[in-house]
Design goal:
The protein is mainly alpha-helical. Helices cover about 60% and strands about 5% of the residues. Strands 3-2-1-4-6-5-7 form a seven-stranded mixed sheet, sandwiched between helices. The two termini are about 35 Å apart.
Amino acid sequence: MKKTDLQDKVTKQNKIEKADICIFLIVFIIFGFALLSFFPAILTSDCTSQIKQAENNSYSLGHPVIHTFIIGNLSKLGGVWVPALFQIIVFATIWTWGCKVARSDNKTLKNKIFQVIVTTIISFIPLNFLYSITLWKDILYSYSFLAMLVCIFIGIKKDFKYSIVEIILASLSIICVMKFRYNGAAVGILMFIILLLLNFVKQRKVKISILFICTLIIFNFIISLPQKILIEKSQNNSNIGSVGGAFNGTILHTMGALLNTDISLNQDEIEFLNSILDIDEWKEKYTPYTASSIHYNPSLRSEIFNTKQGNKKLKQIFIKLVKQHPKETFMHFARVNSIWWSISEKAGMHSVVLSNDWIHEIENGRYDTHPIIQKGNEILIKYTNKTMSHTKIYKLIYRPAIAIIVSIICIIAIVFKNKRKNIWYILILLPMLLNIGTYIPLITSQDQRYFYPCFMTQYYIIILFANVFFTNKINYNENNKQKSNIENPKTLVIIPAYNESESIQKVVNSVYEQKLEGLDVIVINDGSKDNTLEEAKKTKAIVLDLPSNLGIGGAVQSGYLYAYKNNYDIAIQIDGDGQHNPRYIENMIKILSQENVDMVIGSRFISKTQYDQTFMRMLGINITSLIIKIFTEKKIYDTTSGYRAINKDIIKEFVNSYPYDYPEPVTTMQMILKGKNIKEIPVEMRKRQTGVSFITPLKSASYMIKVTLSLLLNSFRK
């Protein structure tokens, strides 16, 4: 490829498209409306504690310092709405970028519309618009998680041969995952090692691998600067204790489960545990789904196990009891982890926050909610409560277990679509599983925000699923690659007729007046109740009298069957009411005989000269035209035109299958999906010679509904 060609390709890929703008604005507007409705933002005590640290320039390790630094200092610019707006922009940007990257292999209009629909649905889910304005560290962590998934997909798509820009983006997303939550360190390190090894194996360039490592080190240094400069390392920030770390919380909670079993303790162990918390109270306060009543118990004396000696003794007792009661230990962890493996809720789950009332007293009303759009606040609270009170909806959009199951099913489906090509898609699941794995031994409550990355994974995998499955790869048949070049084709003009006694002779005669060689006319009398049959017999046409009214589909298919049985090269359908002008027949035959075309449609609208249709009929035509465009990437202007010429291949197709009612839009889309080449030519229609139209407004509405459903169902068939 020439350098200029490569530059053009890169420019085209990076060009901002209408779909990108649409996706970004959907997220920004809906999330922005939520911000104005819950102004200035949604906060809990964790958030206000972090903001105070930034205000007082007294940072601690209780929360990731980089997150405290970001939300605290952004709040100084104008209030807590600033970091909330920042979060909205971050998600809108990453999601838009992720959709664009996914769309690079499937630029069909259908895929773009699907992405817009999914974006709209995601934006209207309360979990997402409320989390976007809640200043928890879990939110930016989850958004960084999403960015990392996009980088993994880029690697899969490019066989892990990352460019310099992509290496920078991958390194930045991994470092953010590592720094925004402490458990993210394990996730980020493992994913970096995997991507680095795959990149080296596929690219075999030491310089690129060194660049990958150096980029990660540089970003780690930059993002760690606030912690290095601002943190007071001597501070003790956790009421659970800094010695032993977060695992102490797990020990205290699990100990409650073990104390409620038939355990064996010596007097020294009993006295030690009682010094931390009265054993009877410990047993009483234990619940398998949250440790709050133990961790935040006023009687808990954390200083006992917050020394090296005390911590060592606590762990010795814990290990002893675990060995004695492995089954009870396992059941405890199964229960407390049920939030991510059980679709049904085992216990109350900490989910979304709808007001700042519960921090009113501790913050003296400083962060009270003052909605700019009061009505919006009322509507969104009511809407959120309804989604949470509806059992099925609640499970579908709030339970992490559903997100995990959907993600796994979609990835399995993608892999089985093309095993050799798509096997690496399994890597998309790995960060989510690693994130869950870091919580299995540490989780102490049913807190949904810990598993928000599961939802980010689910949303993006759905986009990738559509990218793989909703494609329109239409491959033309081998025999259609060359021009037909049929000399003197044998042609049959099919005229379906129902109560056309006033016009049928004129229509037949006008066809024969074209004086075309090898052309025959067949009139299909579809159970007419007037003299159509007698009038047709007065002409040179072949007349086929159907025993009963089969409708337009049955009548036309009968003509195609006659053409197939009698080995015609071309079949042309025209109406018996005289509106189709036969002077275009010669051009239709010429196109089918000499060009790589399987069907020619006489279009009233391709030249935009005839708009004498009713509003309902034009609406129906525009809707069907849009649907065909979405699913085939081909614009058909006159989807209902019965003035059509087809070659032998399509004659055979129509003999085997042809819709009973309003067949033109459905069969046109079917043929495009089967790889047939279709061409529209401009034609001018004449007034009906019968002067009667059987298409009433009610029938038009009925047609619009039926044909829309038929097209949607047929879009998945080839």
